[in-house]
């Protein structure tokens, strides 16, 4: 009830939620109480949670921030939300996001922008900005997000939260509306590494409904939290501290790294030479995958359909012209172009080759260090609207997060102080399936 009240009193300003499921939350909370009374409770039983509105939730509108799904009520539950429900969590509602998770600011939502609780003049980051704003403002203790190129880590950084993007394949994508299927991964947004570990315990695991999910045992992610950091080898990529990084963020991150040294870690400079190529590679591959994933929104089976279509082609074209927003259309155009017969080799294949080289850079680095540290973002949160008409300026903000998805690695952002009164994040990148180690480092740091 306290969280519902908080949503009521603050969401007029923040617009973190697209849908609040108050009645359902009360029913789930009552069931959690019963479960607790009968001694069946786990650590998450009865804990409220907000879900990014990209996870299908049975019987509840699942809009993905788009007009084309404004009337869509999912007929089934995503694996992630299902598992958290099984753990006894109470869903408060569905949070705002950039349309189809395409963006870094939560401004491209059909439902209007979300505002940053630290300063409502600035963006909360994106695309999981609604989830981050909800947790940062006390509307929810924890939330889910998804990260295709930074959408968990970047809003966590800009809202002073802890966000974890797991290794590709660690968390099932089933029922999570697809953006870039080879990059998408769901994960927790929380205040602390400990909360994130508790959520990941329930979210992770093999799912036969997702052919890319990995059949690797899920450890207890809370088990290593208290391990000392003695002997931990941290690498600082020199490319993450060069031109383009706000100098105050650089100072905050350096101070954070010094803290880790005091805790027993050793630090050395490393190189990820292909970092700057992650933006062109990602902004070909993600739109290419998006252009095919979004072909299912045709007005035939579900979602928005234009009025009075004259024939099938008119229905397809007008449904999509009216239903998708500008950024989504831009991605579909870019992706379709990059995949077209005459340009496939020049763009899509080339981007896939870069992707492999970016992955190799990380493998070379992990031969020398255990964890890579650096900034999550090059700048603090910007004013609403400041980059809305300049997509490339927005894409450049993703420079430190994209390569982690291209390589399929786990990445985390932890709060690392403020610049001009706005929070910034320290990013920690681990080797495949090293989530427990990242959570350990983050917990010791916090
Ligand atoms: N900003 C990136 C994009 O627009 C990443 C978004 C995401 O991780 N979903 O594609």
TrEMBL record:
The encoding gene: gatA
In this record, what's one Pfam family? Amidase
Record: active site: 52 (charge relay system), 127 (charge relay system), 151 (acyl-ester intermediate)
Q: Which organism is it from?
A: Natronospirillum operosum
Keyword Signal tagged = no
Which PANTHER family does its entry note?
A: GLUTAMYL-TRNA(GLN) AMIDOTRANSFERASE SUBUNIT A, TRANSAMIDASE
Where is each Amidase domain found?
1-439
HAMAP family cross-referenced by the UniProt entry: GatA
Keywords in alphabetical order: ATP-binding, Ligase, Nucleotide-binding, Protein biosynthesis, Transferase
Which reactions appear under catalytic activity for this entry? L-glutamyl-tRNA(Gln) + L-glutamine + ATP + H2O = L-glutaminyl-tRNA(Gln) + L-glutamate + ADP + phosphate + H(+)
Matching InterPro entries:
Amidase (IPR000120), Amidase_CS (IPR020556), Amidase_dom (IPR023631), AS_sf (IPR036928), GatA (IPR004412)
Q: What is this protein called?
A: Glutamyl-tRNA(Gln) amidotransferase subunit A
Q: Which Gene Ontology terms of cellular component type are present?
A: glutamyl-tRNA(Gln) amidotransferase complex
Q: Tell me, how does this one assemble?
A: Heterotrimer of A, B and C subunits.
């Amino acid at each position: 009830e306290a969280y519902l009240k908080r949503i009521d009193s603050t969401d007029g300003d923040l617009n973190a939620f697209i849908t609040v499921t108050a009645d359902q939350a009360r029913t789930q909370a009552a069931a959690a109480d019963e479960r607790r009374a009968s001694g069946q409770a786990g650590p998450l039983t009865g804990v409220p949670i907000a879900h990014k509105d990209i996870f299908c939730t049975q019987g509840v509108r699942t809009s993905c921030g788009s007009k084309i799904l404004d009337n869509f009520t999912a007929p089934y539950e995503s694996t992630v939300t299902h598992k958290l429900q099984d753990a006894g969590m109470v869903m408060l509602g569905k949070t705002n996001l950039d349309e189809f998770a395409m963006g870094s600011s939560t401004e491209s939502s059909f439902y209007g922008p979300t505002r940053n609780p630290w300063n409502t003049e600035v963006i909360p980051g994106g695309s999981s900005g609604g989830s981050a704003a909800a947790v940062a403002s006390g509307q929810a203790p924890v939330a889910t997000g998804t990260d295709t190129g930074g959408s968990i880590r970047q809003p966590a950084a800009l809202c002073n939260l802890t966000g974890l993007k797991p290794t590709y394949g660690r968390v099932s994508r089933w029922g999570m509306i697809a953006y870039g299927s080879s990059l998408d991964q769901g994960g927790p947004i929380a205040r602390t590494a400990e909360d994130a570990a508790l959520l990941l315990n329930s979210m992770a695991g093999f799912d036969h409904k997702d052919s890319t999910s990995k059949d690797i045992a899920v450890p207890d992610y809370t088990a290593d939290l208290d391990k000392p950091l003695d002997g931990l080898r941290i690498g600082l990529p020199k490319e993450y501290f060069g031109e383009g990084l706000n100098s105050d963020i650089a100072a905050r991150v350096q101070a954070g790294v010094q803290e880790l040294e005091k805790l027993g870690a050793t630090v050395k400079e490393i190189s990820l030479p292909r970092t700057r190529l992650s933006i062109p590679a990602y902004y070909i591959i993600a739109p290419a995958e998006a252009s095919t994933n979004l072909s299912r929104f045709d007005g035939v089976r579900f979602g928005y359909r234009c009025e009075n279509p004259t024939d099938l082609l008119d229905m397809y074209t007008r449904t999509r012209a009216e239903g998708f927003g500008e950024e989504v259309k831009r991605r579909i155009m870019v992706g379709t172009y990059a995949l077209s017969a005459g340009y496939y080799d020049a763009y899509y294949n080339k981007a896939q080759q870069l992707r492999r080289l970016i992955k190799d850079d990380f493998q070379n680095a992990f031969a020398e260090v255990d964890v890579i540290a650096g900034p999550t973002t090059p700048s603090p949160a910007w004013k609403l609207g400041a980059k809305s008409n300049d997509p490339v300026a927005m894409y450049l903000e993703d420079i430190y997060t994209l390569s982690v998805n291209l390589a399929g690695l786990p990445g985390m952002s932890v709060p690392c102080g403020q610049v001009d009164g706005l929070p910034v994040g320290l990013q920690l990148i681990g080797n495949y399936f090293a989530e427990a180690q990242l959570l350990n480092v983050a917990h010791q740091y916090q």
